[in-house]
Fold:
Amino acid sequence: MGLIQKYPSILEFDKYISPDDEEYNFHTGLDKFTFGFEGFGLSPQNYLTQRGPFQHGVTLVDFFLQPRVIQLVHRRQGTSRENYWDNRADILNILRPNRQAIGELSPGVLRKTLPDGTKRDISVIISEGMRFSPRNTEAWDEFSFTEVIRFIAHDPTFFDPTVNTVSFSLDVGAFLYLQFPVRIYDSVLYPFLGAMQFSSETVNNTESITYTGTWETFPTITLTGPMQSPVIENVTTDEKIQLSYDVDAGEVITIDLSYGNKTIVNEAGTNLIGTLSTDSDLATFHIEPAPGASGGVNEIRALFSGANASSAISMSYYTRYIGI
Structure:
């Protein structure tokens, strides 16, 4: 009797998540299938060049990634004509571009789950598809549809949907415990343990972030007071964020440097971008991948005064990739 050779199944999943967090799975293995994605590799690039007098050719100056187009062929199986129309309504409802609050225009997310469970997301909007064009009349297929769907990613980089958070270790003081004799009753002494806290006036701490992505990422920085005139500097890239502002005890400042968002607000929603120093790098402050940062290590320095044990700084970011 011959041996039956078994091959391991490949588990890959593709999902669309709308701006209001509704999900649509493109492949279930039961009634939904995809016949391949394209556009997941390198995005188009635009190279900037310049030419001097009498120069042959050009000099390469810089490059920028262009928006990428992602296209898939999607098959949806049905069991009846009524089911066919329900399936059409379902996918149209999920992919429509107005699944968001009035006055907002937010992208959805395409998520690719790889065989090892790794997830890669990219922000997209629907560009074309779901036309339900006339099918091949030589084959009977009245309950199902096969459609080409095209998305556009204006930010062409992928990211791991798990947020990384680094909390800074701030040396802001120490506790000194002293024992005092206390007379409670006549001729009886009871020891009392007292505590005194001494805090440093200035904090100057550096954290090393080892970044494993293949594309730069723009973090979100959270400052919790008290602190005076805080400075956050990426020593590796020579970029800094400096505020001419005294953060009160318990006040929380959020500095959002993400793509398309450059905001500085406190928990009350007060706009503090006017406190930013003129030599700060609000537009470009980022975490750099290798080889720009040797081994992907970014040295982030925090400098401020007026600290105590309640002062805190954290930095959160997504790990980004140029393609998958």
